[in-house]
Each structure stands twice: as C-alpha cells, then as structure tokens.
C-alpha cells in the first residue's frame, strides 16, 4: 500500500512505515493536483500537516483512500466528519507536539518582556553607533517569575504551558469551555514530581487577573479576543498566540499595542496565512515566527512515528 506524506514526514516515520510494508511517497503535490495524484498512484493513506487541505472533493473522488492523517493537533484543514461518514479513518497526533508549542510560547514571552524582537532589529543597525542609547531603551524589562499567566484553552498544550510556567515560579490561571478541572504533573530531572490541581475559571476572570495571556484553542467562528476583550485586560498585558490565526482580532491588537494597553504580542499564527498583514509584520512590539510551533526535530520524530504506528495498526488489523 502507498502512503502520500504530502507535507513531509520525519525519517523515523518513513522508516517505521517502510518496515510495516508500506511505500512512502514524499513528493510535494500541489493542492489542485492531490486528487489526481492519489488516483493515479492508488494511494491508500494521505498524511498532511497544516499546508495540504483534504476537503470533500478529495474525499468524494478518491476511492482508494482509506486513511487521512494529520501530523499535529488541529484538523481544521480536513473535513473530518464528512470523511468519517464516508467510511474513512481520520487520525492525528494530539500529544506529540505539545511540549514544542509550549516552549515556543515561552520563547515569545521571554522575547516580549526583554524587548528582544526590537533589540534584534536595531542592534545590527545601531549597535556600534548608539550602544548606550539602545541599552537605555531596553533597560526596563520585567521578570516572568511571580507574574500571573492566563491560559485560554486548557487541553494538552495549555497544560504543557502550565507546567513550564509553574517551573518558572509563575501563578497560573486557566479558562476552558470544556475542561472544569485538571491535574498537571510537573516532572523534574531526578525522578521527582509534583501534581498541581487546577480549576478553570470564567474567561472574564482570566482577562481581569492575568499579566500575560496565551491562547490554545482550535479555529472557530469569530474572535476569542477582540476589542471588548482587550478592554477587560490589565494595562500592560502581554499576549501570545501559538494556536490558530483568526482567534485574535489583529486590527484590535494593533490598536491595543499602540495605546499601550498591551505591552507586547508574540504571534506564530496569523489571520492571513501565508501572507500576514504588513502592519503586523513591521510592528516593533510584536515578536514573530512563521507557524513553527510544532516544528522541532523531536516533535517531528514523535509525530512521524505516532502516525506510522496508527496507520500500521489500522491497516494491518484489517479494520479498513
């Protein structure tokens, strides 16, 4: 059987699939040619990340397709329910990239509180001519330790963020429509650990009390944070979005940054991907990454291996 990994797959994933008797194709097929390619090569499994979309047209027109796999958590680029209604299996890897995304959240938080995004732009330009001026400009950083981190969305990634925040000595509060309480296990290098119990709070309370806010929610209709939500927040709050573009109103965010309601923002995802608005890209108070939350070598290894294990388990057990 053939597997098309259209958005790439780790070497460990390829090795596991080939060991299981599958032919792995890593040719990047243009979106409009995916259905034709699947039919021409009689592909049984398509594996995607965030770039390739598997919609109704592909599902309806590719009779050889048995499994659609998403390397990562969110599956908004796949018509999941429709595919399942047609007898296809849709799988993902919800746990594989949680730690990687959480670490990027803190990369943005540390960047924001120490002005690294702006310093890294200006040091190459003025570091030799205006060193003392830049030193003064970036001398009012703040510490994360002792501050309150508000987590909107307290699933696997939100809880991974909470672990790191606790390790830094932060207070953590969380809001989630579907999670009332959770116990987070914080592991230490020598085998010791602590369990910390959380009860989620109304989102309005998180907005009111958090010094920093990070979002970990799926794509949805409407904004989670817009103009009204910014007004509920503390002055000088920091905002990080490593979840999905479109959950923050970027126009309202720019206004909040310019009015100093928001101290800084860290964005890994954008309303208009892959062409973010120039006002976002050029803003001196926004730390930017190009949707790389899950893009660590370790996470990609875990994702590839986990996808391979699921595919092999499904097809070899003759469940499809």
From TrEMBL:
<dbReference type="Pfam" id="PF00389">
    <property type="entry name" value="2-Hacid_dh"/>
</dbReference>
<dbReference type="InterPro" id="IPR006140">
    <property type="entry name" value="D-isomer_DH_NAD-bd"/>
</dbReference>
<comment type="similarity">
    <text>Belongs to the D-isomer specific 2-hydroxyacid dehydrogenase family.</text>
</comment>
<dbReference type="InterPro" id="IPR036291">
    <property type="entry name" value="NAD(P)-bd_dom_sf"/>
</dbReference>
<dbReference type="Pfam" id="PF02826">
    <property type="entry name" value="2-Hacid_dh_C"/>
</dbReference>
<dbReference type="InterPro" id="IPR006139">
    <property type="entry name" value="D-isomer_2_OHA_DH_cat_dom"/>
</dbReference>
<keyword id="KW-0560">Oxidoreductase</keyword>
<feature type="domain" description="D-isomer specific 2-hydroxyacid dehydrogenase NAD-binding">
    <location>
        <begin position="108"/>
        <end position="293"/>
    </location>
</feature>
<dbReference type="InterPro" id="IPR050418">
    <property type="entry name" value="D-iso_2-hydroxyacid_DH_PdxB"/>
</dbReference>
<feature type="domain" description="D-isomer specific 2-hydroxyacid dehydrogenase catalytic">
    <location>
        <begin position="6"/>
        <end position="319"/>
    </location>
</feature>
<protein>
    <submittedName>
        <fullName>D-2-hydroxyacid dehydrogenase</fullName>
    </submittedName>
</protein>
<keyword id="KW-0520">NAD</keyword>
